[in-house]
Design goal:
The protein is built from three helices and six strands, in the order αβββαββαβ. The strands form two sheets. A four-stranded antiparallel sheet has the order 4-5-3-6, with helices on one face. A two-stranded antiparallel ribbon has the order 1-2. It has helices at about 1-20, 70-80, 105-115, and strands at about 25-30, 35, 55-65, 85-90, 95-100, 120-125. By secondary structure, it is of the alpha+beta class. The chain is globular.
Length: about 130
């Protein structure tokens, strides 16, 4: 019975991912990750002493989770103030993938986002690879 539950989970994940698309075709990232259309490049990758990449993320993209109950006009006001554009809503209504459009660094944008009471967390859009 455990196998049936696992297969069911895989089917649900596959269907969920296949139902979410973008208006523009995705671009292939040099590391093999797919990034949203219209976003170019990647910040320089920092390596740990072991030689592994410790901070692989898509340049100019942040994931922002808003606290439950945050109204749409609050989210829009934060986006306008920080010059962020929604690329995709990952899970409605709280988790957004956003593009940084104001020239601020990733760290500065995340710091400014965390100052808002409506933001639960903000982090870079990390690239995960299977080795």
């Amino acid at each position: 019975m455990k196998g049936v539950g696992f297969i069911h989970s895989l089917v649900v994940i596959f269907l969920t991912m296949s139902c979410t698309g973008s208006a523009t075709p995705p671009e292939q990232h040099p590391t093999g990750a797919v990034q949203a259309g219209g976003v170019q490049g990647q910040d320089d990758l920092k390596s740990s002493p072991s030689g592994r990449k410790s901070e692989d993320h898509v340049s100019g993209q942040v994931l922002v989770k808003f606290k439950e109950g945050t109204e749409e006009h609050i989210i829009e006001a934060i986006q306008a103030e920080l010059h962020l554009q929604t690329i995709r809503i990952i899970s409605r209504p709280n988790l957004y993938l956003m593009k940084i459009e104001n020239g601020f660094s990733m760290q500065e944008t995340i710091k400014r986002l965390q100052e808002f009471k409506a933001v639960e967390y903000a982090e870079p859009n990390l690239i995960r690879t299977i080795q």
